[in-house]
Design brief:
Layout lengths: L5 E9 L5 H9 L17 E6 L3 E7 L9 H15 L3 E7 L6 H10 L5 E7 L9 H9 L6 E4 L8 H9 L19 H17 L8 E10 L4 E10 L2 H8 L4 H18 L2 E10 L7 H6 L4
Parallel strand pairs: 1-3, 1-4, 4-5, 5-6, 8-9
Antiparallel strand pairs: 2-3, 7-8
Helix pairs in contact: 6-8
Length: 297
């Protein structure tokens, strides 16, 4: 008897910076979602895709759930809510090293409205004493019933295979939605802009808040030298931030481009030349037109 093929969509939901992108990248095996030590680094639904001869899983990595403070925050919450309604399974990711505060209670209140099956995934267990894990789990299960609970570490890979096995238990029989060799449904321009933004967040650390957006102005592959030429603009909200992003003698901007180029070349598979510009757009996160221009709608 032929084994049925399983396929479905899985949403990763949780507070900012609990490791959703790290978990998806660990499962998929490729860097398809922006990872940073700063919260709220994922702004779009980014599809990571795993395909084998037995199943295809499409992961929807959503912005961290939080009460919105501006128009961009409202859009991010809209994306998160939509992701809950469109999938076969929700992975609720929490940070074992953080307590259950008001933020988690807000997320749980949203999840109680969902009819989809929900797995509680307790991440970063490498950062806590193992004998405390049951108490951490009980804090969440006392507030809500889940369809399963698993402890993992995206950093070390602990229990990630078991997480994949648990996911498959909830998938229905279905078709292949994407080709075998496709690992993400995101357009290349989106991935490139996210990689540039990731490096900017890494290098700027606490100097610049989250008022950074990246727009790809042009991408052109030149056959004569097999090089991809990319021109991109980094937008910030204040003139003082522009100087910090550029750096003394342009050093910071050059470092951002160099680090981004390394990841982009791995993504595209050929040599890349990046030209970066910095522009100020006052309060752009409250401007619906700019939010749309930067690819967040």
């Amino acid at each position: 008897m032929e084994t049925p093929f399983l396929s479905g969509f899985v949403s990763l939901i949780g507070r900012p910076n609990v490791g959703k992108s790290s978990i998806m990248n660990r499962l998929v095996g490729e860097k398809v979602a922006i990872i940073s030590s700063k919260p709220q680094t994922t702004r779009n639904k980014i599809e990571g895709i795993i395909t084998t001869d037995r199943y295809q899983v499409i992961f929807i990595d959503t912005p961290g759930m939080h009460k919105p403070r501006n128009k961009l925050g409202e859009y991010m919450m809209k994306v998160s809510r939509e992701a809950l309604e469109e999938v076969d399974l929700v992975l609720y990711i929490v940070d074992a090293s953080s307590g259950l505060g008001r933020g988690e209670k807000f997320v749980i209140e949203q999840l109680k409205k969902v009819r989809t099956s929900i797995l509680l995934v307790i991440n970063k267990i490498d950062l806590v004493d193992q004998d405390k894990l049951n108490d951490i789990q009980n804090q969440y299960t006392d507030m809500m019933d889940f369809d399963g609970v698993i402890w993992v570490s995206a950093l070390t890979g602990q229990n990630m295979d078991k997480l994949m096995d648990d996911i498959l238990k909830f998938l229905p029989q279905g078709p292949k939605y994407f080709p075998d060799d496709m690992i993400t449904g995101q357009p290349t321009r989106v991935l490139v802009s996210e990689l540039i933004r990731e490096k900017a967040l890494e290098l700027l650390r606490e100097e610049i808040p989250h008022g950074i957006g990246v727009e790809i102005d042009s991408m052109e592959h030149r056959d004569e030298n097999d090089v991809m030429y990319i021109r991109a603009t980094i937008y910030c909200e204040k003139s003082s931030h522009k100087g910090i992003i550029i750096g003394k003698g342009g050093k910071m901007l050059k470092d951002i481009g160099t680090k981004a180029r390394q990841d982009i070349e791995r993504l595209l598979g050929n040599r890349t030349f990046i030209e970066l510009w910095v522009k100020v757009k006052d309060d752009w996160r409250n401007n619906p037109q700019t939010i749309k221009t930067l690819g967040y709608e």
